[in-house]
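User: Watch each token:
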Amino acid sequence: MSVQPKSYDRFEDYLAVERESRDEKYEYVAGQVYAMTGASFNHNLITSNLVRTLGNRLESGPCLVLANDMRLRIEAADACVYPDVMVLRDSPAFHDQRRDVLTNPVVVFEVISPSTEGYDRGSKFGFYRTLPSLRHYVLIAQDRLGVDVFTRQADGHWLLEAYDACPEAEVALAAIGCALPVSEIYANVDLTPLAGDQA
């Protein structure tokens, strides 16, 4: 992500411009906007695998799976972002009547690269932690086998469970009654290092 020179005094001003945009997407954090850059092949493949695998496992229940074109408003952090994948349980809650900005995911997935990992683990996770609905935050590496699941505990603390170098493992997401095989998340993903495979 790169900071754009324009800033906004209010979230609503950003949202009005973002809703009119046809070719570009921007995330908003406390008045600053950040351009969303194109993603790598591995990033897109992992995202597609997640949507398909989650959709198949959750199709008969109350959960909905959404991919990366849905905005998420995080009021407490004065932010609006585009998670790679979100899962909702029960009814969606929206920022307003336009129904294009969600506020209540129960699980958020981010596919990380070496260039985004620090932000996704740091500031962005800080934003997500302020969402009352969120129960799991899942980080998936695109350049190696690695899935980290942060789960909100009853006392508000977050517990990390790491799934590294074990394609036979199943990633447990208790809040949605679902387990995802690591092998399905990484289906057809070539983890051979490539120069410039960053986004």
The chain is about 20% helix and 35% strand. Helices lie at 11-20, 41-58, 117-121, 123-128, 182-185. The domain at 39-185 is CATH 3.90.1570.10 (tt1808, chain A). Residues 1-5 have pLDDT under 50 and may be disordered.
